[in-house]
Amino acid sequence: MNKMKELNLKGHLLTAISYLIPIVCGAGFLIAIGMGFGGTSQGELIPGEFSFWDALATMGGAGLGLLPVVIATGISYSIAGKPGIAPGFIIGLTANAIGAGFIGGILGGFLSGYLAVAILKYFKVPKWAKGLMPTLILPFFTSIIGGLIMVYIIGSPIAALTSLLTNALDSLGSSSLLVFGGIVGLLSGIDYGGPINKTVFAFVLTMQAEGINGPITALQLVNTATPIGFGLAYFIAKLFGKKIYTPAETETLKSAVPMGFINIVEGVIPIVMNDIIRCLIATAIGGAAGGAVSMVLGADATVPFGGVLMLPTMSNPLTGVIALLVNILVTGLTLALIKRHVNQDEMNVEKEMEEEDIDLDDIKIY
Amino acid sequence: MKIVGVAACTVGIAHTYIAQEKLENAGKAAGHEIAIETQGTIGTENELTKEQITAADIVILAADVKIAGRERFEGKRIIQVPTEVAVKSPNKLIEKAAEVIEKK
């Protein structure tokens, strides 16, 4: 277990994802706008034979097609530093070539990074050849070993697995979609952008890279709806003469709700911390409802981030709007119902926030 | 005591800055001098100066991802946590940092 921790697999993956997100968002919007106006993503732009919208769609398509390469390079860089970049590129492209896709890119990145580290450590060169190490020896040997493993050993099984997975997801009936969407929504609602949410994110982002947009759309719509639901709860509760937030919490809402619109769920954390269980129940129920609706109706944003900005990228934006509304309403109603009335005393004395104890496993001291 | 640190989360738009703010507030509340650099998607902001790092008693890294310029802290006491911890328990984290220094 400690060994696993030292490897820090998740940290490397998250580092790579942090490089990936701006690319997916940029390319995702390009392809969405291009295709929205009738363009198609083409392998090659032949002068005089393409429209402006074809150009946009092609730019986006080119960017999205590079995702396995970006994830491989990012992971490899995270593990090995600068020497990881070159072999990461080559092995990522190899994963693309053999059809191993995003999952291949992830494994290729780890392969490349650890190979680079191993070669740096065990491959000793005489002093005069030191310059050859970073320029020739390391990129060549890492790439040839990693690339061949990709091509002859892991590539084809991954490609088969990937198409199995995408086919299975594509053929899900609406009842399984309901369950699947519900689970994605519940898991992403449950920890407000924390580790569970990010793990689910990595999983659904993988699916998006394989062309299945539903799950990630469900996840991000839940992240968007949650803070807005917290805002709505304020008004619903008020309607019944109930006060569920302290003045400080109301203040927090003023920034948390707008942040929610652009997909940042973290704004509500201070409010959640004061009343974890009730808030969790409300977000989880709302998230499950929103996620399920989103998947059943087939909301399919081509970008993995952006909150309400994701709506125009869907083939039918109305589906996303409905999922958002359902999620917001359910979360808001539940919160208004189950949160306690804040009485006058608590209004005056701002409660000292209890902090969670730090888990010693979470902390590393050097 | 003097604390420097870096905050960096996965998406680089929210947790990074919440962690920075919470740590700075908690540090100041406990009477320390504290400066936290943010490495978000937009790039590095509030960059730590050489003098700040040299003068610091301890370094707090609240990061979920590989941070840039880690070698700047070579030879310093470093506490590394996920951003989550800095967001949820900033005061306890600062206390812990103080303990680590005292033990030295």
List keywords for this structure.
heterodimer; A: 366 residues; mainly alpha; 2 domains; 1% strand; globular; B: 104 residues; alpha/beta; Rossmann fold; five-stranded mixed sheet; 5 strands; 27% strand
Can you describe what's shown?
- The complex is a heterodimer of chains A (366) and B (104).
- In chain A, helix 2 (9-36) runs antiparallel to helix 3 and helix 10 (214-239) packs across helix 13.
- Chain A has two domains: 2-170, no CATH class; 174-348, no CATH class.
- The model of chain A has no long low-confidence stretch (mean pLDDT 86).
- With 366 residues, chain A is mainly alpha-helical.
- The longest helix of chain A is centred in the middle third of the chain and has 39 residues, at 132-170.
- Chain A has helices at residues 2-7, 9-36, 52-65, 67-80, 85-97, 101-122, 132-170, 174-190, 195-209, 214-239, 247-261, 269-274, 276-297, 317-338, 344-348; one strand at 364-365.
- By secondary structure, chain B is of the alpha/beta class.
- In chain B, 39% of the residues lie in helices and 27% in strands.
- Chain B is built from four helices and five strands, in the order E-H-E-E-H-E-E-H-H.
- Chain B has helices at 15-29, 50-55, 83-88, 90-103; strands at 2-8, 33-40, 43-45, 58-63, 78-81.
- In chain B, strand 2 and strand 3 (43-45) form a beta hairpin.
- In chain B, helix 1 (15-29) crosses helix 4.
- Chain B is globular and about 35 Å long.
- The model of chain B has no long low-confidence stretch (mean pLDDT 90).
- Chain A binds chain B through residues 11-12, 14-15, 17-18, 21-22, 77-78, 193-195, 198, 259, 264, 266-267, 269, 273, 305, 355-359, 362-366, and chain B through 9-15, 18, 41, 64-66, 77-82, 84-85, 87-93, 96, 100.
